[in-house]
Amino acid sequence: MSRRVSPGRLGRLRGEVEEELPGILESIPAAEAVLDEMTYVLWPPVHEGRVATYGAIVDPRSEPESWNRQTGLSVHHRLGRGLSNDATRRFADGMASWALRRPDDTTELVVFDRLASSERDLVVLSEVSGGILVQRHPTGRVRVVGPFGVARLTPNGWHHQPPVEGWLDAVSACHSPGQRLVLKRLLRFAVHDLGSRRIGALLVYRMGEHSGSMETPWPTPPPIGIAAPVDLAPMQHVLSQMDGAAVFDNDGTLVGLGVRLVPSRAAEETVAPFGGTRHTNGRRFSFDEPATIVIAVSEDGPVTVFRGGEILGHSGEGEHVDPSRPGDRSDQSTAINAD
Hints:
The chain is α+β, with helices and mostly antiparallel strands. Helix content is 29%, strand content 24%. The protein has an eight-stranded mixed β-sheet, with helices on both faces.
């Protein structure tokens, strides 16, 4: 069960990561261990034609026994004494069981009572554990998650998705800690539940009164909200099957589905198009409704945030919009939640 990685292969991986994800390795104290785990997910064991999935939590800063309170997961710590690192890895599926890579280069095992394998789950687990997560998902996706955000391997190379918290300071419309928390949850849902799965959507966060420039063909949805982890799976599922916007009230409760946003003539004349119809309507609607924040998720994955007709943040790989400049007008597992 021993496994060898040639120095040449490891060197090529390091060069690729340094070129395509600049600054990330330098920010990780256990960079060598992370690179080693990345080689395991990029060149995994294959047995009888089956490619093994895998997940590792590298250099955690807290003990697994403390993770339950913030994640809701029941965590079982298996030390794996007497087994080599490679042998312990064989038990870690990157969904319900994870290898725990210590700074002294020993590997243990943690097992959860349910799957924790979606991109959102990885972000929360990294935040709670203080570690770097490296995963090969059953779909073949390879992800590295840490304080730097999410690094995804795509057919075009590595793509870096910075933490959504970096956008929050640009949203000066959030007057209370409660609104800021709701927006953080909406952004995480947009980026890690919708964008990572290529589900196009338009999320409208209504923080105050609105002028009524919305047409709602669907009946009122059930009382599900962005704050409850158990509500995220059905919310994601319904959004994958419809057009129109999903509207959330001040508390983050879903109050409208399939909503057609109707920009005013002033918005059409004043606010330039951005992207396709979904993004343009969302941008112009935010101009008409200053008490709303609109989050547009492209079918290709990128996420854009609008307020007052302006672009507060854009995660696309093409044109760049600096989230710190609000005036820049450049044209399924069970979720866990920690704040």
